[in-house]
Hints:
With 306 residues, the protein is mainly β. The protein folds into two domains: 7-103, Immunoglobulin-like (Sandwich), CATH 2.60.40; 115-304, Glucose Permease (Domain IIA), CATH 2.70.70.10. 6% of the residues lie in helices and 39% in strands. The protein is built from three helices and 21 strands. The chain has helices spanning 134-139, 288-292, 297-304, and strands spanning 7-12, 15-21, 29-34, 40-45, 52-62, 69-74, 78-84, 94-103, 115-117, 125-130, 150-154, 159-161, 166-172, 191-195, 201-205, 219-220, 225-228, 238-247, 259-261, 265-267, 280-283. Strands 10, 11, 13, 14, 15, 16, 18, 19 and 21 form a nine-stranded antiparallel β-sheet that branches. Strands 2-1-8-5-6 form a five-stranded antiparallel β-sheet, with no helix packed on it. A three-stranded antiparallel β-sheet has the order 3-4-7, with no helix packed on it. β1 (7-12) and β2 form a beta hairpin. The longest helix is centred in the last third of the chain and has 8 residues, at 297-304. It starts with 6 loop residues before the first strand and ends with a helix.
Amino acid sequence: MIKKLKITALILFGCAISFKADAQEQQVNITYKINTDKSVDFSYEKPDPGTYTVMLKFNNLTNSTGQSEQVFNIKGYSGNFLTLRPQNKEQGIGFSYRYSYIRGRLDPKYNAGFVYLLPYKKGSKVTATETVWIGSKYFGKTSPEDWKAYRFYTNNEDTVTAIRKGVVVEIKDLYDTEKMDGVEFTNNANKIVIEHPDGTLATYTDFKKGTIMVKLGQTVFPETALGINSKVNGRGRFNISLSIIYLKTSDLESTNSLYGFVTPHFDTSDSGDTILITQKEYTAADTPEIIGKELSKKELKKALNN
């Protein structure tokens, strides 16, 4: 989930002297433009529409009132996010800078009691199991205090559906799941990440290869078909993994988890507001009031007709 990039550049009165990038997989590219009035515009480009938090740090900043360290939320594929203006309009701005970034909106205000749908169509019977953090299970690390993630098992191969309205911001569909039946643990997981309107992120993991039904940038509604579950990490059973997280700190040097974990409430046939009990079977529901609370009338009609 975490994508980092640190860039070091030295600009002296508008002249670029050096530029260095040290990331293998660059998700956010920040550039600058010097204007005729000697102001400097900073802009970004990225391959997905999701929200990122960018930490921009200036050294040797001269002839500008800009702050030495600033944090920005950026979303969409491109845009401008900062303009530096010269104090002395007859001279250019001198500065060096570096930046880092991470997926997610920093410290979003979310409703901890929000009710989600189960990740399968109405009437599907699923067994929910709380999962153990892989860091503690395999690497002897302490799990985050608020850790919460589930696996949802079905007796047969089934379609996984969206639990809430959101935008698809990441898709990975690379791994041959047929060859991983019975594997206890692997990082090679086909997944979808969906950003919700409140800034939380839902990660659906372990789709069967080649079955993902949505596209990057697509807005999905509750019960939108996402893909087919697989037997990866399921010990022979069909399943999908689901966690809901939010970015709680922009300190990329922290040894603690940068993300907080949401304990979700779910709509089930037994109750419209349930915190799941591990190893218990539930039947998926689709209460219209729960489906429609974030949708326009047009979106609700489309969702209910799916």
